[in-house]
Amino acid sequence: MIVNEFNPKHGFCSLTIESAEDLWTLRRLIAKGDVVVTRSSRVVKKEDEYSRPDKGERVKVTLALAVDDVHLDSSIERVRIRGTIVEASDESVTKVGSHSVTLTPGHSLTLRKKEWTPLDIRLVRPPKESSTRFILVAADRREAGIGVLSGSHLTIVTTIESGLGGKQGEEQSPRPYTAKVADVVAQTAQEGDRLVVAGPGNFKNAISNQIKEKKSQQVTLVEGLDLTGADGVRALIKAPQFQAIARDSIMVEMQQLVAEVVKRISVGDRKVAYTLPRVSEAATAGAVEACAVSDNVFASGVDESELVSVLNTIDGNGGRVYLADSTMEFGKQVSAFGGIVALLRYAFRA
Question: In this structure, what are the phi and psi dihedrals at residue 334, rounded to the nearest 5 degrees?
Fold first, then answer.
């Protein structure tokens, strides 16, 4: 999440949504009574002599909505907000009735609150930097997979086929292929991203050199990975070499958390909770040390408002909250336990 301007004393924050994880943060941040200012479209009916009363012109307008309801649809990566129009950049827009806006990655908005709580401020600017991204490339002479690891979420950007023969030949130069891979990496990477290239043999060196020419950034090479393409990117994040590189990342913390949950359950350790009702009880008692929630948790039938309340309670009591990508192995494990798991500070239930 890009925070463009944040002034809690004056009650506002201007930001840009970057990822699905940001949508979860917004859902926890936005409450009834807040004001959301963003671009939207609105039908404006004309009242001239020749206009049809049931028709109107849809215009782009900046609206300020006093929030009545907010809903997260994680399956298609959007937050939907319904509220009353309190300000509009177009004078022809009526302020009677309600209006809805849909927020997705890439959307910019300003959020106004009467009071920014310590939890609100931590959600906007968490104590631990969680925005470090990794641009991952798994490549050989045949194909290259490119992915982005942000927090605990992995996105496969593309897979590029080289068109080169199986054996190195003078008539085929690999440079157009490596240049294409470097171009995609350069277009995807942002300032502060860490670039990691892996794959069998020495071909990854050529790709690494091309990326350095394009981005002038350091590239870390990972040896010993045989898979390439999208499967190679997924395998890379599990490799011990990458785990060492990303040892302070949210993803590694998440993997360790889920592994500890599984371990405690297997040995009968009662300092663990799973499913929303049990985690909610532990959260209310202040017993939750860390919690992971799957991004497909709503498939388990949990109530969205209750879930948001539980996550905010955990955070407010000093616990850590993580969002697990349900397409990754640790995310699938969280989903299997009802979509939410927690490590407890002490045994809460008999």
Answer: -60, -45
349 lies in a domain?
no
Buried b (16+ CB within 10 A) or exposed e, 211-248: beebbebebeebeebebbbbebbbbbbebebbeebbee
- Number of domains into which the chain is organized: 3
- Looking at residue 47, its pLDDT comes to 56
Are 233 and 256 within one domain?
Answer: no
pLDDT, tens digit (0-9, with 9 covering 90-100), for 79-104: 899 998 888 776 666 666 678 888 88
232-236's contacts with Cβ under 8 Å and 24+ in sequence apart are: 232/138, 232/139, 232/145, 232/198, 232/199, 233/136, 233/137, 233/138, 233/145, 233/146, 233/147, 233/154, 233/156, 234/147, 234/154, 234/328, 235/138, 236/136, 236/138, 236/196, 236/198
Range of the domain at 146: 133-245
- Is residue 83 within a helix (H) or strand (E), and if so which, with residue range? strand 78-88
Identify the pLDDT of residue 213: 82
